[in-house]
Specification:
This protein has 249 residues and is an alpha/beta fold. 42% of the residues lie in helices and 15% in strands. It has eleven helices and eight strands. Strands 1-2-3-4-5-6-7-8 form an eight-stranded parallel β-barrel, surrounded by six helices. α1 links the parallel β1 and β2. The chain binds phosphoenolpyruvate (PEP). Phosphoenolpyruvate binds next to β8.
């Protein structure tokens, strides 16, 4: 099954409006027009400006987070409709920093995932184990339970992306080996075939995230069940991000 790789940058809480605009324009200018989907998720306050900078280029605008309610008294929060209003096409849920730094419980992650998918945006749902969970042999159990945050009424495999991001690899410079990534990606696809069906699972893209860099991207992206990357640190420079994008083509 040929799946178009999807490489997305997660800028996290970095940069200024000026640096973000420069980064966005540089990526949009250098990104290949076919063979790979490219996206970037800037901080909320820069979404509108980045949206205008990359409009019409084919590069997808993403959001790092969202709140599940449609509108109302939720101080500080942003809804799916607000994101769509400024051109957002995909939204992350369950990122390890939301789960383990901002202490989002699984029940909240599940509501956010349902809201993103229900809004018509593409859902990029992040899963991954902590180091102590890997060491205790619990990687697949953790990933399975995070996959179960998704409802099987999510019926369009083109709008569902799973990002496997081992927590111990995020921002640490220590990536999963090609074999470790492939093992978990194959498990995820199998688990999705069981919960949805084989055809659905074969169409869903599964990104790897966790210290993906230009020098390790090719090996990871060559794995049969690795369909792209969610990139943190290396997405903050045009050259390193585009090197990863080109490794996926
Ligand atoms: C991430 O935050 O999703 C990520 C993968 O970060 P990094 O590439 O910096 O490890």
């Amino acid at each position: 099954m040929a799946r178009t790789p999807f490489i997305a940058g997660n800028w996290k809480m970095n940069g200024t409006k000026a640096s973000g605009m420069e980064l966005a324009k540089g990526i949009a200018k250098g990104a290949p027009k076919e063979g790979v989907e490219v996206g970037m998720a800037p901080p909320f306050v820069y979404l509108d400006a980045v949206s205008q900078a990359i409009g019409g280029t084919g590069v997808l605008l993403g959001a790092q987070d969202v709140y599940f309610e449609k509108s109302g008294a939720f101080t500080g929060e942003i809804s799916c409709e607000m994101l769509k209003d400024v051109g957002v096409k995909f939204c992350l849920t369950g990122h390890s920093e939301r789960r383990h730094v901002l202490m989002e419980p699984s029940s909240l992650v599940a509501k956010k995932a349902a809201a993103v998918y229900g809004s018509g945006m593409t859902l990029v749902h992040c899963v991954g184990e902590k180091l102590e969970e890997r060491d205790a042999g619990k990687t697949l159990v953790v990933v399975q339970s995070q996959l179960e945050e998704l409802g099987t009424d999510m019926a369009d495999p083109e709008r569902l992306v799973i990002a496997y991001e081992p927590v111990w690899a995020i921002g640490t410079g220590r990536n999963a080996t090609d074999e470790q990534a492939q093992e978990v990606h194959a498990y995820i696809r199998g688990a999705m075939a069981t919960r949805w069906n084989r055809d659905f699972a074969d169409r869903v893209r599964i990104q790897y995230g966790g210290s993906m860099k230009p020098d390790n991207a090719k090996g990871l992206l060559n794995q049969p069940d690795v369909d792209g990357g969610l990139i943190g640190g290396a997405s903050l420079k045009v050259d390193s991000f585009l090197a990863i994008v080109n490794a996926a083509v």
